[in-house]
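Input (structure):
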C-alpha cells in the first residue's frame, strides 16, 4: 500500500511563515489556500480532510504537497508565463541568482548589500565567466526567480534539545493511532471591536464596519480541542488562560473516549500545561501529553483549523459583547462539524485504519510500539 502523501518536515522558519499566513490571511487567495494545505498536512491531517478544509480537489492538494517537497515555500506563488526564449542559459541564471543572494563581502566586495548597478558591474567582470545583462533585465530575472529586495530580519536559533524526538513521537502517533489522538490549544485573545475582513460587494462599494478605539469589554480565550480521527472541533470560551482551564479542556478530551483506553493529546509546552496537578491527572487517566517543541507550534494539528475559524467568525464582524460573539463562534463550530467530512469518506477511512492496524498487529487501545530508527 502506498504511503500517505504528506509534506516533508518543516523547518522552523517555514512553519512560522505558514502559520503567519494562516492566521493573518492573504489578499492572494491562491497563496492562502496553498499555505493552509501545507500547514494542515504538517499537522498530520490526511489529504481528504485537507481537501474538505480548503474546498479543493484531492489531486490539487497532492500536487501542492509534492511541489513543496521539491521547491519549498516557492510553491505558494505558482508562475504561469510565456514569451520569447530567454537569452541566458539556465546555468547563467542560476549563477546570477546565487551571486545576488550571496553577501558581497564574501565575494571580496567592499559593501554589505548589492544594488542593481553594482551587481551588473560585478557580473560583467567576474573571473572565468562574463554575463552581460542590463539592470531592468536583471530586476525581472530576480523577480521571476523569487528574489526580491527586502529588509533583513533577525531569527532565533532553535533551543529545544528534544525537538527531533518530540516531532518523531508526534508523527509516529499520527501515523499509527489517529483515532486516539487529540490536539489542544488556545485561540485568542478575542476582543469586542469591529474587525475588518473580506466579502463580496459591488466594485467600488466595499462593505464597511465602524471604527472604534474603546475597549471596555476585556478579552476572552477560546480553549479548543480537536479530534484527529473524527475531524471534530469543539471548545469553550474563558476569561483567561491558566492551568485550571487547561485541565478542564483535557477532561473534555478524556470524556470523548470514555472506554478507558490510552489517548494522546498534542499541545504546546507552556508552563500552564506542565503543572503537577495536570501531570498527575494525566497519568491517572491514561492520557499521554505530547508537547510540541519550543517555537514549533505549527506541529499541532489544531493550528490549521484556527485559521478558518478566525476568518469566518471574527473577520468582518461587529459584535456587541462577548456572549453574542461566543454564541456565534459556537454556531460556526456546530456547522463546521456537521459539514466537515462526508459520512461515506469517514467510514471508508475508519475501515482502512482498522485494516492497517490488523496487518501491523496493533491492538486497539494498546500502548504504541516503540519508535525504531
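Output (sequence):
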Amino acid at each position: 500500500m502506498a504511503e500517505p502523501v504528506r509534506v516533508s518536515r518543516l523547518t522552523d522558519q517555514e512553519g512560522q511563515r505558514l502559520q503567519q499566513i494562516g492566521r493573518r490571511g492573504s489578499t492572494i487567495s491562491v497563496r492562502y489556500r496553498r499555505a493552509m494545505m501545507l500547514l494542515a498536512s504538517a499537522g498530520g491531517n490526511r489529504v481528504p480532510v485537507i481537501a474538505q478544509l480548503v474546498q479543493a480537489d484531492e489531486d490539487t492538494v497532492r500536487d501542492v504537497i509534492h511541489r513543496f517537497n521539491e521547491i519549498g515555500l516557492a510553491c505558494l506563488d505558482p508562475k504561469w508565463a510565456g514569451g520569447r526564449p530567454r537569452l541566458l542559459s539556465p546555468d547563467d541564471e542560476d549563477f546570477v541568482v546565487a551571486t545576488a543572494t550571496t553577501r558581497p563581502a564574501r565575494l571580496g566586495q567592499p559593501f554589505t548589500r548589492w544594488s542593481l548597478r553594482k551587481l551588473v558591474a560585478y557580473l560583467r567582470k567576474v573571473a572565468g565567466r562574463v554575463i552581460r545583462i542590463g539592470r531592468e533585465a536583471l530586476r525581472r530575472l530576480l523577480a521571476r526567480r523569487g528574489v526580491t529586495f527586502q529588509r533583513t530580519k533577525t531569527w532565533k536559533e532553535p533551543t529545544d534539545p528534544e525537538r527531533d524526538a518530540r516531532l518523531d513521537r508526534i508523527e509516529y502517533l499520527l501515523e499509527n493511532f489517529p483515532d486516539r489522538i487529540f490536539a489542544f490549544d488556545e485561540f485568542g485573545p478575542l476582543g469586542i471591536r469591529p474587525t475588518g475582513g473580506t466579502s463580496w460587494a459591488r466594485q467600488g462599494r466595499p462593505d464597511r464596519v465602524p471604527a472604534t478605539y474603546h475597549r471596555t469589554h476585556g478579552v476572552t480565550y477560546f480553549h479548543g480541542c480537536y479530534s484527529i480521527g473524527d475531524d471534530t472541533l469543539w471548545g469553550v470560551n474563558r476569561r483567561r488562560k491558566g492551568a485550571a482551564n487547561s485541565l478542564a479542556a483535557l477532561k473534555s478530551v478524556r470524556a470523548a473516549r470514555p472506554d478507558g483506553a490510552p489517548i494522546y493529546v498534542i499541545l504546546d509546552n507552556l508552563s500552564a500545561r506542565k503543572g503537577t496537578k495536570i501531570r498527575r491527572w494525566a497519568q491517572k487517566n491514561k492520557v499521554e501529553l505530547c508537547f510540541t517543541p519550543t517555537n514549533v507550534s505549527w506541529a499541532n494539528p489544531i493550528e490549521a483549523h484556527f485559521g478558518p475559524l478566525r476568518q469566518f467568525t471574527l473577520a468582518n464582524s461587529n459584535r456587541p459583547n462577548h456572549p453574542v460573539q461566543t454564541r456565534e463562534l459556537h454556531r460556526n463550530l456546530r456547522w463546521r462539524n456537521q459539514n466537515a467530512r462526508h459520512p461515506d469518506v469517514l467510514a471508508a477511512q475508519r475501515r482502512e485504519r482498522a485494516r492497517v492496524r490488523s496487518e501491523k498487529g496493533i491492538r486497539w487501545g494498546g500502548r504504541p510500539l516503540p519508535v525504531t530508527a
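Notes: The two ends are 21 Å apart (CA to CA). Residues 183 and 266 are 5 Å apart (CA to CA).
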